[in-house]
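FAQ

Q: What does a record look like?
A: Structure on top, sequence underneath. For example:
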């Protein structure tokens, strides 16, 4: 892929007119070209075509297939989406699938990016929740020397951007977890907070499953033998792998915090239930004294000596009060009341 002068034609958005914009020479913007000529430009020595699409139609994908000779199976995957992160080689072309993630209304929403990479072209196809790759193009334009390396640098730039966008999602979850954790320690957690902890833990598991397979994708890109990947740029994909592992560590750490917070909420709830049960048991024991005595004197026996005592009624009330006060003081000292 070492070429003296690369032209890069970038189409960050697909418009109704079907054109690609921003032609680059040596990493610098020089001209615009129509999409119908993209295949011809990609076959010119030292040229690279970069096209970006968002949820394209089958007709549009067929047109790109005709322009660049894309494989039928890759076209089907790019149309249907719902693919696991992977790297497949079709002759001299590569097909890469990566999962994207964004926080939308407090939940992690996932999307996909499908990348067709071949000699002289890069086509990115976005599905679902995914940030526009315009910042990637702008960053590449700001470094003409790097952009002049061609399609493998563009592939690296997109993958690096996808992985970097995992971190804002993790940071948002971490901030929410810390807030819920403080509420759990300060007061009884609500049912909604407990449910939210479980929900966040599931979302983090899905994020890990989306990010972790990219390690294998980058590992294959690091190895020699793949078409269109300059050995000099292989360390860049190793850097992306390091970022993914860092994301994985953050996810695992957050999942442990969530597990601890969830267990703490359960233990807090159980402790509060135990305390309530103790209070109820203590009051039940106190109320059992007048109930038992009143039950005895409520029996309809004819010969009960105490019934003829002048002050028997007041004595019984005094005994009941004394026993209740004694039990109350004992339960207070033991912490049951």
């Amino acid at each position: 892929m070492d070429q003296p002068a690369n032209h890069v034609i970038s189409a960050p958005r697909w418009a109704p007119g079907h054109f690609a914009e921003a032609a680059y020479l040596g990493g610098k913007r020089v001209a615009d070209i129509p999409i119908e000529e993209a295949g011809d430009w990609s076959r010119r020595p030292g040229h690279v075509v970069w096209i970006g699409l968002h949820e394209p139609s089958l007709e549009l994908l067929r047109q790109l297939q005709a322009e660049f000779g894309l494989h039928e199976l890759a076209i089907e995957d790019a149309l249907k989406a719902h693919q696991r992160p992977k790297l497949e080689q079709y002759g001299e072309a590569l097909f890469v699938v990566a999962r994207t993630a964004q926080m939308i209304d407090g939940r992690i929403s996932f999307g996909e990016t499908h990348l067709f990479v071949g000699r002289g072209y890069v086509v990115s196809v976005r599905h679902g929740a995914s940030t526009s790759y315009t910042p990637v193009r702008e960053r590449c334009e700001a470094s003409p020397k790097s952009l002049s390396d061609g399609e493998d640098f563009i592939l690296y730039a997109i993958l690096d951007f996808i992985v970097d966008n995992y971190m804002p999602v993790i940071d948002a979850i971490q901030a929410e977890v810390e807030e819920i954790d403080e509420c759990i320690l300060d007061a009884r957690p609500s049912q909604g907070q407990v449910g939210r902890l479980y929900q966040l833990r599931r979302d983090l598991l899905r994020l890990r499953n989306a990010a972790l397979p990219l390690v294998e994708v980058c590992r294959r890109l690091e190895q020699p033998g793949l078409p269109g990947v300059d050995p000099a740029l292989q360390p860049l994909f190793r850097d992306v792998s390091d970022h993914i592992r860092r994301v994985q560590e953050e996810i695992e750490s957050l999942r442990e915090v969530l597990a601890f917070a969830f267990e703490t909420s359960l233990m807090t709830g159980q402790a509060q239930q135990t305390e309530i049960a103790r209070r109820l048991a203590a009051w039940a024991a106190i109320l059992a004294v007048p109930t038992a005595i009143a039950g005895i004197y409520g029996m309809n026996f004819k010969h009960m000596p105490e019934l003829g005592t002048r002050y028997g009624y007041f004595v019984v009330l005094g005994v009941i009060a004394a026993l209740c006060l004694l039990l109350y003081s004992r339960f207070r000292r033991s912490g049951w009341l």
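Q: Is there anything notable about this one?
A: Residues 269-334 form a domain with the Methane Monooxygenase Hydroxylase; Chain G, domain 1 fold (CATH 1.20.58).
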